[in-house]
Amino acid sequence: MKNSSEHTGDLVQKFLLDQLTESEGQEVQSLIKDSDFQKKLDFNTDIYEALSENRVDELRTVIQEARNERSHANTTETKDSDQTLKNEKSGYKSIVMALGLIGTAALLFFLSPYFISEKPKNIFADYYQPYPTEKVERGNTNQSIDDYNLAISKYASKDYQESLDILLSLSEQSPKIKMYQAICHLELGKAEEAKTILDTLQDNPDTKLSQQAEWYLSLSYLKLNDMNNFKDHIKGIAESKYHLYQAKAKEILGRI
Amino acid sequence: MESLSRIREEFVSGNTSKLKELYHDYHDDVIRIVLSKKLCGASEAESIFSESLLIFYDNVVSGKITEVSSIKNYLVGICVNSLRNELSAKFRFQDKVNEVRTVLYDNGYDAPKKLHKEELKSICYKAMSELSDKCKSIIEGYYLDRLSMKEIAQKMNLSSGDVAKTLKSRCFKSLMKIVQKQYNEKLI
User: Fold this and answer.
1) ipTM of the assembly?
2) Of A12, A99, A162, B72, whose CB neighbour count within 10 A is largest?
3) Are residues B79 and B149 in the same domain?
């Protein structure tokens, strides 16, 4: 037999998920003015909202990955078609050059494997993806929200300098805004600036954001060719049981 | 055309690559049609297309849509409506949350001091990661994918829906215990 607290808990859950029967609906109506029930309903609603938003955030990351795959594929395709055009123009020359390149690559491979497979920029290219963008709310009249959305829209279209300029001009500098600024810096080749911002975000109370900051901070060290600091950070991530990027960090450790 | 029930199965089994697949399959067509309506520029079309996929995911998982004549047209519809109304399409949980808050407000509820939403999200995220994989799956299945107890039992290889229900209550209690503890610590 359920106790009263469990029973009201069930009612609250069913209410949130639209699963109340008619009699349960009437029961909720009779309880809705009770302050304990209200508190329970309010807290459970907040939790439900937080869990749901976390799920949406995860899905946004998946979409962002698809977006990145697409833009990566397009870049490769353009490069490939350029190469084909050139090859058509000078077939023989290209074959000689290709053989030369293969020879050089083979030589480098035997002489210094580090430069071929474990170059910081190779690891960076394999693991870096921009921080996912958030939905752009339309029709908002608040100027700072409009500016924020414009910055995010510029960020999404890879116009990082413009996005950064707007983000820096915003009166509110939330941790998320700072995260976007850091990524803009990274994209613009200013890894030192990115590192400074990410350093401050590492201890943010928002666990998810702080873990993301830690990850991007590690990647900033790669950009700075600072393999010692990169290894230290990536090791720390790999050893954190619940870190968002633990699997990726372990993978990287297996490579370096 | 692929059936929505099959797509739903993949979504609720946690196969996020299905979402990526849909992104790649419909990206060009949907963006082209949306741009032809001249309601927005390319970057906004990109953002709205991404959002439309999330809304599609939400509607399929919740069972709000069980069949459509064309996924492409459905996605175009979400994008165009969103652009025309100048309102973003909402996730179903947002509607419910707003409804509950209105009900509480209408009944004279005086909300106590609360943590910022982002902090609560972070606490919940951490709390979920501290649960066992089984509990995490049950809570996600029940709250986020809205699976029935029978479906949860099948998914988790449990003997019956009743077993799933008992486990759900236990897991939810564990989650609330962790969340409540961290919530109170942060609130002080």
Assistant:
1) 0.91
2) A12
3) no
One domain, residues B72 and B143: no
pLDDT digits 0-9 by tens, A200-219: 998 887 778 888 899 999 99
CB contact A80 to B (< 8 Å): no
Q: Count CB-CB contacts under 10 A for residue B186.
A: 14
| Residue B19: Cβ-neighbour burial (10 angstroms; 0-12, 13-18, 19+) | buried
Domain count, chain B: 2
Closest chain A residue to B126, measured at CA: A207
* Strand boundaries in chain A, DSSP class E: none
Instruction: List the structure tokens of B103.
Output: 């009900």
Structure tokens at A170: 């915003």
- How distant is the Cα of A129 from the closest Cα of chain B, in angstroms? 15
pLDDT in tens, A16-67: 999 999 999 999 999 999 999 999 999 999 999 999 999 998 898 889 888 8
Provide the residue range defining the domain that includes B183: 112-187
Within 207-236 of A, beta carbons closer than 8 Å to B belong to 207-209
Q: Are residues A79 and A128 in the same domain?
A: no
Whether the per-residue pLDDT at B90 is higher than 80: the answer is no
Is the domain of A242 the same as that of A135? yes
Task: Give contacts of A52 with chain B, Cβ < 8 Å.
Answer: 91, 93, 143-144
